[in-house]
Design brief:
With about 110 residues, this protein is mainly alpha-helical. The protein has one domain (about 5-95). It is about 50% helix and about 0% strand. The chain has 2 helices and no strands. The protein has helices spanning about 5-15, 20-60. The chain is rod-shaped. The model has no long low-confidence stretch (mean pLDDT about 80).
Length: about 110
């Protein structure tokens, strides 16, 4: 038998200690550990859900793929537009999974 389980069962089932102060302390400790585990599980699950929602909102705002002109300066204000008159632009209609192409200006 597991040593920790043996000690725990002995402390909980001891008839002499039912009326002592240590039995109430043990019960409070068990309840507090259970409540803290529930709170940790809830906080992790809400954090993961919030992360997924933020990811969905950002992809809806910006799109899944953004094609920009290559520039050494990667600042947001330095985005230069690509001309719509490119060789690859008409070929996007034949690719599966592409529903829409949106031109944007900054």
């Amino acid at each position: 038998m597991n040593y920790e389980l043996f000690i725990a069962k002995r402390l909980i089932t001891n008839k002499k200690s039912k009326n002592s102060i240590s039995s109430s302390i043990i019960k409070i400790a068990i309840v507090s550990i259970a409540v803290s585990m529930i709170v940790m599980i809830l906080s992790i699950s809400t954090g993961v859900g919030l992360k997924n929602k933020i990811k969905e909102k950002l992809s809806g705002l910006n799109g899944h793929i953004v094609i920009n002109k290559f520039d050494v300066n990667n600042g947001f204000n330095s985005v230069k537009p690509i001309s719509k008159k490119q060789k690859f632009y008409p070929n996007f209609n034949s690719v599966d999974g592409i529903k829409h192409i949106q031109v944007f200006a900054t």
